[in-house]
Amino acid sequence: MKITVVRPDELGPAELTAWRQFQKDRPELQNPFLAPEFTLAVARQRPAARVAVLEESDGLAGFFPFEVRNRVVGVPIGFGISDCQGLIHRDGLAWDAKELLRAAKLPVWEFDHLMADQFTEHHTSRAPSPLMTIGDGYPAYVEDRNKAGDVVKQTLRKQRKMAREIGDEQFVWDDRSPAALTALREWKSAQYLRTQQYDRFSTPWISGVLEELQASAAEGCRAVVSTVYAGGRPVAAHLGLRSQSVLAQCHLA
Questions:
Q1: Domain total of the chain
Q2: Euclidean distance between CA atoms 244 and 253, whole angstroms
Q3: Taking the mean position of all CA atoms in its chain, how far away is CA 50?
Q4: Most buried residue, 12, 54, 146, 205, by CB count within 10 Å?
Q5: What is the pTM of this model?
């Protein structure tokens, strides 16, 4: 296997087409954080972004996006907001983690939201990821969660109380209003201050990536702000990245 490390902006149309095809062929790779658009957006803000390109004798076989920090420490692309990390490769590819990191000249690679079936011999812990499946529609999802004894009933009761006390509610999917993103940033910044965490929204590269992806129309990866209004003012908001089949939470907690 041949492994070449390049800057993301050095990937040509053939490489990007292959990357997207690998995602299309494997549902578990269709997370927007694994899309080439996410890597390219991060690379425009992070000069140390790189991609290891894997090739076999019959053609392109995989892509491993990463960043180099402190000269020797490798981290997943967009580390700090990425909620899904790993190697994007064609189905059936046999690859060796140590060989990959050696070719990328990474004596250390840190991760925190890696796909569970990759680098398995180097995991320190495993945990399930929250997942909502709404293929049968939202009413069916609510009914299922109610049967499971979830908090949906309590949430819906609070929702009705909010509408009575504050005003009629409205949900806006893909809210492009500047007020929506401003409110979300203010709420999160206040939470960071209250919990003594660093404010991710005050980090220029994070703001730059999210703003670019919110303005994007790419099917494989774009940022979406969804807002709940009550009485004409925002009361809740969600920021995530979406592909054609997955809406993923930005890792901003």
A1: 2
A2: 24
A3: 18
A4: 54
A5: 0.90
